[in-house]
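Sample intake sheet
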Amino acid sequence: MADIKDSMTDWSTKKVAIVAANWNSFITDEMLEAAEYTLKRKGIPEENIYVSRCPGSFELPLACKWCLEHLEIDGVAAIGAVIRGGTPHFDYVCEAVTRGIADLNLQTGKPVAFGVLTTDTVEQATERASVEKGNKGAEAALALCEMIELKNSLKSI
């Protein structure tokens, strides 16, 4: 059985996108900032990080698809926050965005990292977007990089 070697990815040549939802921007802005910071720290030049905004989390799959179709990128991180309210709207949005992003991964063969919070309260969302508690935007950026690295390591076998 072949070993999957470290890909030794040259991050200076990688191009990625981040799509962040405007809805609940008091949460998604912090996540977006952390994702950008994480990608830059990884070695991806600022000019190779494309940032787009869409209205809400429901629109993330289509916005990510457009980025994959129209930009020459290695992958995309989807950033959003869905906070439960008093109606079943929460369940429909969460299911749609989860399915849409999962489908994009399989259809395109390029990684679309899931950085969408699905919380019961504003407090939970705020905590998950905080740097002190492990910002989920940064985690999505790292997951994107890990998937790019995995794909590169498989190409070298």
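Comment: DSSP finds five helices and four strands in the chain. The first strand starts at residue 16 and ends at 21.
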